[in-house]
Amino acid sequence: TNHPLNLPLLRKMRRNFGIYGVLNEFLGAYTVHSGATWEQGTDYRDPQQRKQMLEAVRNMVEQCKGEPGLLAYVLGNENNMPANFSGVNASRTNAAVYPEAYASLLNEAAALIHKLDPDHPVGVGNMGLNLLDVYAEKAPELDFIGVNEYAGKEGFGALWEAARAIFDRPVLIMEFGCDAYRTGKGFDEEDQAEYDRNNWQDIVYNRVGGPGTGTSIGGMVFEWLDEWWKDTSVKGRDGFHDTDPTIEMAFPDGWSQEEWLGIAGQGYGRSSPFLRELRKTYEVFRELWNAKPEH
């Protein structure tokens, strides 16, 4: 946000583990870099706010454009979230109210990145496919569509075909995954592992050059480690591993337990945040990410 990028970490990830980084500029999500107040939310019609957000994009690219560990840039994180969305991470923008203004800023930001760093692609970080038709008209500078999507344990359904029909750009699933806690049952890593396996196999099946739609360029599992800070529905519970059903989602019990999405846990917290208890879904990804796709 308001501090230099940790480029030594980016270099270490690539050098030691072969991990590349996708760098994200929020572009006004949660009012980051727009200068708007939290109560007002980012206003994409405001020239001064737009100027400040583009300057933040410029600062990000100028810091990292020569980094060998850089894979791509992503603009926004669910900025298109509807204004009446009641989730825990409301984006605090008016992108859904004034989509053309938001899309035009996306286009300006992507064009700026292409000018400063023509060697890396630029995508949008979207909640589902909402506003994709507006991007197709107003943001042709985007190279790919980044989608946060939790569609169900069978995969992503018609998302691939729908995305291609609206805006002919490849799709990167920016978030997919499943929690490891079931309402009325408790800890359940079996369902999580099955859900994640099916989702990844769908991503691979629909990859560019693959047997499916040829729309997919990959996916990013959400999340690496349980996030104990996330469920704020019960005050005074910070630092506890809450089990409250938080948001209705297409998970096995119909709910997301927001603090249980990790492919690794932290035990009971006595050794947090350093303990890593690897779940069955971790082994699923170890297997799948080392497998060569069938042609």
Task: Bin the strand percentage.
Answer: 15-25%
Structural class: alpha/beta
Query: What's the end-to-end separation, in Å?
Result: 42 Å
Q: What is the H/E string? A: HEHEHEHEHEEEHEEEEEH
User: Number of DSSP helices?
Assistant: 7
Biggest sheet details: 6 strands, parallel
Overall 3D form = globular
Low-confidence stretches: none
Estimate percent helicity: 25-40%
Total strands: the figure is: 12
- Strand arrangement within the widest β-sheet reads 1-2-3-4-5-8
Radius of gyration over C-alpha positions, nearest whole angstrom: 19 Å
Mean pLDDT: 93
Describe this structure in words.
With 295 residues, this protein is an alpha/beta fold. 30% of the residues lie in helices and 16% in strands. It is built from seven helices and twelve strands. The protein has helices spanning 7-17, 47-64, 99-116, 132-138, 159-166, 189-205, 280-289, and strands at 21-25, 70-75, 122-127, 144-148, 171-176, 181-182, 186-187, 216-221, 247-248, 255-256, 264-265, 277-278. The strands form four sheets. Strands 1-2-3-4-5-8 form a six-stranded parallel beta sheet. A two-stranded antiparallel sheet has the order 6-7. It has a two-stranded antiparallel sheet with strand order 9-10. α2 (47-64) packs parallel to α3 (99-116) and α6 packs parallel to α7. The N and C termini lie far apart (42 Å). The mean pLDDT is 93.
